[in-house]
Amino acid sequence: MVTKKPTTIKDVAKQAGVSISTVSRVINDSKPVTNEVKQRVLDVIKETGYVPNPLARSLVTRKSNLIGVIVPEVTDTFSAEVLNGIEEISKMYNYDILLANTYSERDLEIKSIDLLKTKQVEGMVVICWDIDQELVDIIEKSGIPAVYISKTNRDFDIYNVATKNEPAARDMTNFLIEKGHKKISLMRTNYQISNLSDSRLNGYKKALEENNIPYDESIVKACGTTYADGYMAAKELLSSNNILDAIFATSDEAAIGAINACFDMGYSVPDDISVAGFNDVEFAKMYRPKLTTVSQPLFDIGAVALRMIIKIIRGEEIDEKKVKLPYRIIDRESVSDRNNK
User: Fold this and answer.
1) 66-163+298-325 topology per CATH
2) Domain 165-296+328-340 belongs to what topology?
3) Can you give the pTM of this predicted structure?
């Protein structure tokens, strides 16, 4: 079997009876050619199925129509739903996405940034659990404009899209208190690279203070964001003879892990212990009991970030450098009302 060689720009030029530079001008719309010549070249391209080399084209137009997206874990449900928003907007504006999965490892983040630079991406969206000065400096040094999706943007002078994390955690903690819960454990994510305070922990503390409930460090547990992380953290909390009214996990997957740990330890959810999550990923409403959670507009976070980086690429004005999208408390089945007991 003979494999047919792909059509080259030289083949198109020969068949259309024009020079290679004329074909290039038609493809890139860089310099005017007559309508008759343009149509003849386009007809040959259609007939042969010729596909221009995107790298070669970008060298001429200085536009690759590529945007790099760096994610800490591509299988994470938060990242997956944010990526849906990124992809939808990229299609609308005819950009392609190059995805780099880093597992939150700094070496892989650096390699990914270098790789995206060689691919001549016009901009980057960086999804990261925690931003530090080193990462900001590395990205700025690359010369690639970037928008970050992270709750820990702190005081860095960067473009960032997130939810109002501190008030969201405060409202969820207040919601649990209003439902008659006082001994509320916080299972906070442990991805903090730096020692700076965590906004969701601050929100939790403020709600306790407002309701004259003492902060108990022994029931604040640092854990990862996965089901297994939540399961193990909840099991350790319950094995330490802690008598809890509720568990507030700052990840839906960890919250569902906590629900199963409660059941395995002989507790009923929500009758004995209430459990709440954060993010409102798709399966939060499919699990039983359906998860009460803080709903972040994950699709919109991705969509807004992608639209922002396109504006930066095009030199368009941006109203806000740090965008904070609204959130909602979604009351489902995993939190009981103890006031009615």
Assistant:
1) Rossmann fold (3.40.50)
2) Rossmann fold (3.40.50)
3) 0.77
